[in-house]
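To the wet lab folks,

You asked to see what we're planning to order before we commit. Fair enough. Below is the target structure as tokens, and below that is the sequence we designed to fit it. If anything looks off to you, flag it before the synthesis order goes out.
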């Protein structure tokens, strides 16, 4: 009687693998190099890159949580050849199954990502692969520490959107928390200013939050998010409850990511990503010319939000 079908399948898969040249996906290679200074298992795996192994799992990449995915060399070559991209990648030297081709590893990933990094993949628990690569070398505890380190690093380096409020807004305005100081984010006159400037933001969490895009716990872009007190003007705007302000980003292309995030979450945003007027705003694919108000706490702030008389949002 087979008590653990998944474990049985994994063992059969391990036994069926033949020799192969080991390739890593660039993202996996990047992660392993990043943690190799503090983990011996990561160092050992990196040292196997390009080696002729007794087990045929190659083109290693991330799988579901706690797993690595791989392809066999035979399946990878079949996929590349069937798509007629192998010759263009290898320039006539179709020998990746016999010798390591570091010069074209990136090309294989770029050209073949959908072929060999998406199709006909197998997955094994990270611990299973470690034990197969290094029989009896590492304890269960060491493997568990490695797996947790991989998971933690992945969580940090994954690009993600967050919505923050209160003192966190001031934190993400500080230039020291930027991934890089360039683009509209690096040029913003608000970077690194005194926290007293942000009181209208930090002391009004009911109506003012901030959408941030982060990677490796560093800021890629930010945009204030206002809860509207009132909106009027064009018809069919009553359902607009939130306005995402101008998006400040390191890369211009990330502005579209903010707009996609706004669309998914039901936020309106400025149609023109500039310091100018809030006319029009975009919501659900349509542009609207409206008047808007935001209600903040009744305090005398040292500095009110950067708005000129030509803008169409008022504070009350």
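Sequence we intend to order:
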């Amino acid at each position: 009687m087979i008590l653990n079908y998944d474990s049985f399948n994994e063992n059969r898969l391990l036994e069926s693998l033949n020799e192969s040249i080991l390739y890593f996906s660039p993202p996996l290679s990047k992660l392993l190099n990043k943690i190799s200074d503090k983990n011996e298992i990561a160092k050992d795996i990196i040292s196997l890159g390009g080696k002729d192994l007794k087990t045929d799992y190659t083109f290693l990449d991330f799988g579901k949580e706690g797993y690595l995915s791989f392809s066999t060399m035979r399946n990878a070559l079949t996929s590349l050849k069937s798509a007629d991209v192998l010759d263009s990648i290898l320039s006539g030297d179709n020998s990746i199954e016999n010798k390591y081709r570091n010069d074209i590893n990136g090309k294989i990933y770029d050209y073949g990502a959908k072929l060999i990094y998406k199709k006909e993949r197998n997955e094994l628990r990270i611990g299973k692969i470690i034990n197969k690569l290094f029989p009896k070398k590492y304890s269960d505890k060491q493997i568990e520490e490695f797996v947790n380190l991989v998971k933690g690093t992945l969580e940090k380096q994954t690009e993600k959107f967050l919505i923050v409020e209160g003192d966190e807004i001031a934190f993400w305005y500080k230039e020291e928390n930027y991934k890089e100081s360039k683009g509209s984010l690096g040029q913003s006159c608000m970077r690194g200013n005194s926290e007293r400037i942000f009181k209208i933001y930090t002391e009004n969490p009911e109506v003012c939050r901030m959408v941030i895009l982060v990677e490796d716990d560093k800021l890629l872009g930010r945009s204030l998010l206002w809860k509207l007190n009132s909106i009027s003007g064009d018809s069919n705007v009553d359902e607009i409850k939130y306005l995402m302000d101008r998006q400040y980003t390191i890369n211009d292309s990330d502005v579209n990511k903010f707009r996609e995030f706004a669309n998914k979450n039901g936020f309106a945003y400025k149609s023109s990503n500039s310091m100018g007027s809030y006319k029009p705003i975009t919501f659900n694919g349509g542009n609207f010319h409206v008047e808007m108000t935001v209600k903040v706490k009744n305090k005398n702030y040292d500095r009110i939000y950067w708005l000129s008389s030509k803008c169409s949002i008022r504070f009350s």
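Structural context that might help your review: Residues 49 and 111 are 20 Å apart (CA to CA). The chain has two domains: 5-157, 160-315.

Thanks,
Computational group
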